[in-house]
Amino acid sequence: MVKVSRKGWLLIGGGFCLFLLLAPFLLRGYWIRLLTNMFMFGILAESVNIIAGYCGYLALGNMLFFGLGAYIVAVLMTKFAFSFALALIIAGLGASLFSAIVGLPILRLKGQYFIMATMALMELLRAITNNIPITGGGQGITLPIFPGGAAAANFFFYYFMFGLMVFAILCTFYISKSRLGYAFRAIRFDEDAASVMGINPTPYKTIAWAISAFFTGLTGGTYAYWMSYIDPGEAYQIMPSIKMYLMMVLGGRGTVLGPITGAFFIEFISELVWGKFLELHFLILGLILVLVVIFTPKGFMDLLRRGLSFSKLMAGVKENRV
C-alpha cells in the first residue's frame, strides 16, 4: 500500500508546479505544445466541473461557448483592430452573458432534455457562423500572427494557458468553500429538497453555467489566437465536450484538482497511444478509459485520498457494481 501524507502531497505538488514553470527552458517545442494543450483541456474540464460536477447538470454542449469565445476574439481582432487582451475579456464576458440569457429557460430542463437543448443551441450557432459574412462563413477566419515568431508564440501561449488554468483552479477552490458552492452541491444532491430549503435552483444554475461559460469562452478565444485560424467545424465540435466531461469524471467530479488530473492523464495517454498505435488509437484509448472507470468509479482524487492499494482498487470495483 502506498500512503502519502498531506505534507508529502504538498511537496509533490510544489515540485510539479516548479517543473511546469521551468518547462519552457528545459523541454523542446513538441513537449511545450503538448503541455499547453493539457493546460487548455484542464481549463475546459474545470469549467464543465462547475456546472456538471457541482450542480450535477450534464453539460455536453459546452463547446458552444468555446466557439463563441473564439469567434468573438477573431472578429474583434481582424475586423475592428482590437488588441488580444481586450478582445479576450469581451469574449469571456460575452460567453458568460449569452449563457445567462439562454440559461434562464434552458436550465429549467433536466437530463436528456437539457443535453438536447444545448446540442441544438451549438448547432444553431454553427449554422449562423457558417452563413454570415463577418465570420468568413464556412471558410473560417484568419487571425493576426503572434509577433516574434513560433518560439515566442509557444512561450507566450504556454504561460498564458498555464495562468488561465491556475486562475480557474483558484476560482473553483473559492466556490467550493463559499455559500455558492454549498448551494450548488445541494442542487446536485436533490434539487427539490434544495427548493424546500429556500434555494431557488434556476438562478444558481444560471450563475454556475455563466462561470463555466466565462472560462470556456476565454479558452476558445486564446485557442483561436494561438492557432491563428478558426472555422465553424473546428469551433463547434461535440467530441471535445464529451472529452472534457470524461476528464472531469476520471479526475473526480465536484473536486478542485480532479478535472486537472483527468485532463493531464487523458491528454498524455491519448498522445502516447496516438504516436504508437495510430490505427488502433481509439480502441486502445477506450479500453484504458474503461479500466480506469471500473477501478476508480469516483475518480483519481478519491483514490489518492484513500491511499493506493490493490484492496481499495477492488473495493472501488465492488462499489461501482452496487
Short description:
The chain is mainly alpha-helical. It has helices at residues 6-26, 29-54, 63-79, 84-106, 111-130, 149-177, 179-189, 191-196, 201-227, 232-235, 239-251, 258-276, 281-295, 300-306, 310-321; strands at 141-142, 229-230. It has a domain at 35-259.
Task: Describe this protein with a few key phrases.
single chain, 322 residues, mainly alpha, two-stranded antiparallel sheet, 78% helix
Topology:
Blueprint (H helix, E strand, L loop, with lengths): L5 H21 L2 H26 L8 H17 L4 H23 L4 H20 L10 E2 L6 H29 L1 H11 L1 H6 L4 H27 L1 E2 L1 H4 L3 H13 L6 H19 L4 H15 L4 H7 L3 H12 L1
Antiparallel strand pairs: 1-2
Helix pairs in contact: 2-6, 2-9, 2-11, 2-12, 3-4, 3-5, 3-9, 4-9, 6-7, 6-9, 7-9, 11-12, 12-13
What would your notes on this structure say?
With 322 residues, the protein is mostly helical. The chain has a domain at 35-259. The protein has helices at 6-26, 29-54, 63-79, 84-106, 111-130, 149-177, 179-189, 191-196, 201-227, 232-235, 239-251, 258-276, 281-295, 300-306, 310-321; strands at 141-142, 229-230. A two-stranded antiparallel ribbon has the order 1-2. Helix 2 (29-54) runs parallel beside helix 6 (149-177) and helix 11 (239-251) crosses helix 12 (258-276). The protein is globular, with a radius of gyration of 20 Å. The two termini are 24 Å apart. The mean pLDDT is 87.
Report how far the terminal alpha carbons are from each other.
24 Å
Class computed from helices, strands and strand pairing = mainly alpha
Low-confidence stretches: none
Radius of gyration over C-alpha positions, nearest whole angstrom: 20 Å
Main pleated-sheet profile: 2 strands, antiparallel
What is the topology, as strand order, of the major beta sheet? 1-2
DSSP summary, beta strand count: 2
In sequence order, what are the helices and strands, one letter per element?
HHHHHEHHHHEHHHHHH
Tally of helical segments: 15
Mean pLDDT: 87
**What proportion of the residues is helical, as a percent range?**
over 70%
Q: How much beta, percentage-wise?
A: under 5%
Given the C-alpha coordinates, what overall shape results?
A: globular
